[in-house]
Amino acid sequence: MEEELVLDPQLKYWVLIPISVVMVLVGLLRSSFTALLSPGPKKTPYKKIRETQFLRRAECFRASNNVLDVNQMESRRNYFIEKLNSSEYYSEKISTDDTPKNPFTDSSTNDALMSMMKGNLLNYIPQSLIMAWVNFFFADFIVMKLPFPLTDGFKSMLQSGVATPDLNVRYVSAISWYFVNLLGLKPIYNLLGDNEAMSTILAQSQQTMPNIGGPGAPKVDKIFQGCAENIKLIKHESIFDGIASRVIDVYS
Amino acid sequence: MAHEISTEALKDKLLNISYSGVYAQFHPEQLLDLYNEVSNFLSINSDSIDVTELFNLTELRFYLAILTHHDVDSKACLDRLTDQFGRDRSQRIKILQSIYLEAMGDNEGAKLLLNGDPDELDLSRRLVTFSRNSSDPEEYIACLKFYLDVQPSDLITWAELADQYQQLGHYERAIFCLQEIIQQEPFAYNIFYKIGLNYYYLYCREFSPKLEKKDKVLESANILRKARDHFLRTIEICETYSKAWLGIYLVTKAPINDVLRAKYKDNSAMGQLLSENDKLREVSAKKFTDLSGIDEATLKSDLSVSATPSA
Description:
Chain A is an all-alpha fold. Chain A contains 10 helices and 2 strands. Chain A is elongated, with a radius of gyration of 32 Å. Chain B is elongated. Chain B is built from 16 helices and no strands.
């Protein structure tokens, strides 16, 4: 028979519940702060939209020029080839030198990095503060006994900060309770209707680098020229050829 | 339970109306009914529906209130939305504000609101519409063209430009604009119908039975053939579009057919056109009377009064 530790019931009111409440409140607060600090959706500059829309128009012409007759098709083909080979619809000037730009001088990359940093700081600062708080006031506390048995493997998880190799695993130390809360509060946030709070905590572990505009993306002039080539190669066939006999065949 | 389902269905119906913007084509009476329906729905259910849906429906209610002259209620909806989303953070809210100002007669204020940022293209498009009421239609057309230069694949603007050209009688330009639309939406049968109509108008202007020159007559015949082909394409996509059947019928009955038959029957292209027209006349008359319920005798007598299909 193992010996039972006697836990002061006051521990529950002064340690266990305060830690949980503080964690929940800080999580909610942090999600509100994240929402406040995150920049709104950015507007695309109109020149960029103009470029994509013109390209779209050209692509649509290529895909469904069969709704035009031969003369209209040819005049439009000439128009598109001329415009696609000029720089009229480019959103920005094409630089001639091939040296890739330093990605960190690009403002959009900097914005992405900045917002990532803000998110990270909002994660780390409050969590370290709470951890320091727990460590300072409740160091070496055993705060509760779990109502179910566990294997020894959980010892390092549930009894960190308490140097007692022979203590039953069911006893939980204060700092471990903090960690259990940190990882297990998602259902609580869900109940409180705040899905944001947890998703940001989780995002912290699986954060990816923002897409830094490297030299990989094809340049607009190449895309335009490719589209012009495609338009040159169009083999035109009008839907209006023989349409009358088609309809007559169906309805008579 | 039955009540629950009907609330859900009603909500879906209203949201669909809101997303599709179909209320812009309602009769005044329908609008008023819809307005009452939305107001009732919101006053009962505003606490129980999802916030996104709530604000979408509030926006719908705003538009309907403006259209049905409920100024006070439209202001209330607008205030609710601006309280939630701020005055100048969203283009959508700014558009609502400008519509309210315009409805109140403050055009200058509305323009000022829309004029801020060239990147806010939705606002620019709305700004373009302010020149619509000016006495000079060319000004409106210039504005539309300017906007189309910035947004070359904005279909609504192309359609609007086509309407303007059609009103001014620039049918070829109208056709050009409409062709932009069918290139992006190759199955837009109503646009094919509109193109056919514009060709028909063009034919009506170009041709008179007194025309003597051969190439003039053949050119008119060609225009009319294009009109017919576009109506036929409409039919290929949507068989029940009765207006297009009527268009085909009119084309095949047009006086130029008689001229062609009298003088140019030996021309092989024209001979083919005439024989196709003869067959199409019967088919289209039958189809149109089937679809519209008008019998053929009435159709013939009506057509002798006015020989243009409706827009």
